[in-house]
Amino acid sequence: MSALRTAEIIAVGSELLTPHRIDTNSLWLTGRLNDLGIEVRAKAIAGDDHDDLAAIVAAALSRADLVITTGGLGPTDDDVTRDVVSRVLQRPMHENADVVAAIEERFKRRGLKMPGINRRQAQVPEGAVVLNNPHGTAPGLWIDHGQRVVVLFPGPPREMQPMFEAGVAARIEARSPGRRLRRRVLKVNGRSESQVEEIAYPIYSRLGDDAVPVQTTILATPGQIELHLAAAGADVAAIDRRLDDGINALAAALGPVVFSTDGRSLEQVVGDALRTRGWRIAAAESCTGGLLMGRLTEVPGSSAWTIGGVVAYDDEVKRRDLGVPAEMLAEHGAVSEPVAIAMAEGIRGRFAAEIGVGITGIAGPGGGSAAKPVGLVVIAVVTPSAQMVRTLNFPGDRAAVRQHSTAAALDMVRRALDA
Amino acid sequence: MSALRTAEIIAVGSELLTPHRIDTNSLWLTGRLNDLGIEVRAKAIAGDDHDDLAAIVAAALSRADLVITTGGLGPTDDDVTRDVVSRVLQRPMHENADVVAAIEERFKRRGLKMPGINRRQAQVPEGAVVLNNPHGTAPGLWIDHGQRVVVLFPGPPREMQPMFEAGVAARIEARSPGRRLRRRVLKVNGRSESQVEEIAYPIYSRLGDDAVPVQTTILATPGQIELHLAAAGADVAAIDRRLDDGINALAAALGPVVFSTDGRSLEQVVGDALRTRGWRIAAAESCTGGLLMGRLTEVPGSSAWTIGGVVAYDDEVKRRDLGVPAEMLAEHGAVSEPVAIAMAEGIRGRFAAEIGVGITGIAGPGGGSAAKPVGLVVIAVVTPSAQMVRTLNFPGDRAAVRQHSTAAALDMVRRALDA
After folding, report:
1. Of the candidates A55, A298, A364, which has its C-beta nearest B59's C-beta?
2. With contact defined as beta carbons under 8 Å apart, do A279 and A257 qualify?
3. What residue in A sits closest to B299 (Cα-Cα)?
4. Euclidean distance between CA atoms A109 and B44, whole angstroms
5. What is the pLDDT of residue B356?
6. A 318-347 residues with CB below 8 A of B?
7. Does A217 sit within 8 Å of B15, measured CB to CB?
8. Which structural domains are found in chain A, ordered by start?
9. Given CA atoms B17, B19, B25, B30 in this order, what sign does their dihedral have?
10. Contact criterion met (CB below 8 Å) for A143 and A85
11. What is the largest CA-CA distance in chain B?
């Protein structure tokens, strides 16, 4: 059998052609296929029209070694994938007694009788391998078709992913071209996409030219820029060395704005640093309304380093619960460096934390002025030995400003812990 | 010219074939095309391979009245959409002097000379209409091709969306089949997808059978089930009546678990109800770590009804800052109804709010026991006249439990305000 080098992924389901739902299975599948050395050449999304889907499957099969479908394996008339693939491959279907028994057993465990309609899920095209589904009624199918392979997965990720790992990954690996794709991710806070691009470009254009060419992708979300490096080949050790060199060169060029080169999130990096120091953190938040604490407590086990915080949306809370002087609020305004510092000091003292954070700002869309526009955010971090405060101007809408703010605050904490 | 009834959307760009980036342009485009009465029959995602993209464009053109591409209009060799479409349609390209001038002008405004490479963006296939791009260098293209239409958009949403509105919507409308697609959304908290399905199914299976058939879609996220109703036809008033009837029938059958039939989010519904009553809210959060306050303050203008809160991750904070008695914590444990009520009362009294909320639970993955498993969450809501407390068991991982918890808390506040 020839090696599988290229794949196309087809997501089936009319709901994926509405404005509300997106195919995310293909992202996960692409990651796993890349791991196995297979390149995804194209993706498609089809509804439940037989002819459209048949044309799309046939076209994919004319181009790719491996065609994967997700969805459309349910028991109803709208579930067309099995029928269409059987027709395109000209492989008639027969009822498989083992599959019927497995579905009956599944219903029986819940004290139910299998509805007659579910028999459709036991139809198997000639020559297909049945892939068991411990998490649902629809089995998957692996079909060797000449030099090509077609795999049918159910749509729910909790059914599809275990089925891939248990029944498909090893089969693909046995026919992989002996090459592997490896990846590294570098994450930055406090620089724009174009600033990162400008610094990184000379390095990654050089990385692309080598004997082991490295592909780079830049991804930007508010408060975080990611550089993804990927390289494929047979010699995994050589690829890993090459990627490590690339990451190291980029990290050196970008400097301390790099907070992660090992896949950890910013809140994980901060949590690990707090744990190492044996320090605990508390936060006083105004414009971010609890989201900084929300991110800190996203990390499992965060109760070891997170004491808690105060959301001081109202100035009265800033005075009463954080001890920000009324005169300071009157003189400088709530969005000011003295107030941010007083909030950080107030929460640190009150909660007996080693690190206190204060955030105050104007998330918008209302509340801005010429002197203090929407997007203006002041962040203070106070430790046993230091005090930092930054006034920042963030772009974007309310959600973006709040996300930028929590990322900037976490990054200031990271740097304070590094110091 | 014949009417445009069906569309296919093709997103172009190798980055969309990695595990990291997804095509979201097609969701927005689908919504706008549906508004104009056009059904999206399929979607595709292609890289920068000429032959693959040519095959995908040709296939779409054989099926759909309208083929829309996004991306691949940049100035580099990787930007292949223009070339490929010109080849598929057999329309040679010529440099368009107006486009060159517009791009030169754009660079000049930033004090720059147009790089020679950008001339590629001024190549226009014969017979194409140029769509101006006020937000970037790549113009869009509208190409009438027999009875079919091909439209090329740049990839960035901030360039694509204004171009659609300014240059394309009216052109499509002029060739629309005189039918419109209308939508309504009903949102539920506190029921599972299958519970909603069971109650709603007899109603929406009836809705599908009428003279104006209504399509229904159910979407589930932790803490929220949405029923989407859509219907298409020429008589907009009749469709709207039909959809309203459907929404009303579903709302009556589902009862008070329905929190929105007008598109508003749960936090907007709660914010509007607080504003109407003239009440203000404060929250004491443990396992949700600030995320409830984060959701309340997501709504612009929320400072009018949100005072603030305390994140009491550590039990010491529950005692000192919320006044939860140490004996109560020792006797019942932090995750218990008495403690949740004491947290809600504590924050309500301390922050002088009309409504106080207390949340305490086990988000996991650690910290669970046989008596108090991961997913166990207790929520209390205290108002001037009432006190509610619920003990809930949520499924899913840490993020899902926390999202369920904030939704359940907001919904309890909604019901308290309704009472």
Report:
1. A55
2. no
3. A398
4. 40
5. 98
6. 321
7. yes
8. 6-174 (3.40.980.10), 180-260 (3.30.70.600), 266-418 (3.90.950.20)
9. positive
10. yes
11. 83
On whether the CB atoms of residues A230 and A30 are closer than 8 A, the answer is no
| Residue A145, amino acid | H
Shortest CB distance from B41 goes to which of A40, A52, A300?
A52
Do the beta carbons of residue A124 and residue A130 sit within 8 Å?
yes
Mean pLDDT over B150-170 rounds to 95
Determine the 3-state secondary structure of A210 from DSSP.
coil
Q: pLDDT value at position B217?
A: 81
A63, B52: Cβ pair inside 8 Å? yes
Identity of the residue in B28, B41, B45 whose CB atom sits nearest the CB atom of A42: B45
Please report the pLDDT score of residue B218 as a whole number: 83
- Mutate which of A18, A56, A184, A205 to disrupt the B interface (most B C-beta within 10 Å)? A18
Terminal-to-terminal C-alpha distance of chain B = 58
Query: For residue A78, how many other CB atoms are within 10 A of its CB?
Result: 13
Determine which helix (DSSP H) or strand (DSSP E) holds B372, and give its type and residue range: none
CA distance A43 to chain B (A): 5
User: How far is B17 from B52, CA to CA, in rounded Å?
Assistant: 13
CB contact at 8 A, B96 and B102: no
Are A297 and B313 within 8 A, CB to CB? yes
B310-342, pLDDT tens digit by residue? 999 999 999 999 999 999 999 999 999 999 999
| Element spanning A392, H or E | strand A387-393
Please tell me what DSSP assigns to residue B162. Answer: H
The CA distance from A85 to A40, in Å, is: 20
Six token digits for residue A154: 């159910």
- State which H helix or E strand residue B261 sits in: none
Q: Using the beta-carbon criterion (under 8 Å), do A311 and B313 form an inter-chain contact?
A: no
A307-366: pLDDT as tens digits? 999 999 999 999 999 999 999 999 999 999 999 999 999 999 999 999 999 999 999 999
Instruction: Out of A18, A291, A303, name the one closest to residue B313 (CB).
Output: A303
Residues 6+ apart with CB under 8 A from A214: A204, A207, A208, A229, A230, A231, A242, A243, A246
Closest partner residue to B366 among A219, A301, A308, by Cβ?
A301
- Asked if A313 is an interface residue toward chain B (Cβ–Cβ < 8 A), one would say yes
Residues 15-34 of A with CB under 8 A from B: 15-24, 27-28, 30-31, 34
Judge: B321–A40 Cβ closer than 8 Å, yes or no.
Answer: no
3-state secondary structure of A244: helix
What is residue B111's predicted lDDT score, i.e. its pLDDT? 85
Mark yes or no for CB contact A17/B24 under 8 Å.
Answer: no
Whether the CA torsion A325, A328, A329, A330 is positive or negative: it is positive
Residues of B in contact with A45 (CB under 8 A): 42-44
Question: B59 vs A63: CB contact, 8 Å cut-off?
Answer: no
Least reliable range by pLDDT among A69-83, A262-276, A404-418, B194-208 = B194-208
- CB-CB: which of A18, A56, A350 is closest to B217? A18
Please give the residue of chain A at the shortest CA–CA distance from B303.
Answer: A313
- The number of C-beta contacts closer than 8 angstroms across A and B is 208
Structure-model confidence comparison of residues A2 and A374, the more confident one? A374
The b/e string for A159-190 (b: 16+ C-beta within 10 A; e otherwise) is bbbebbeebbbebbeebbbebbbbbbbbbbbb
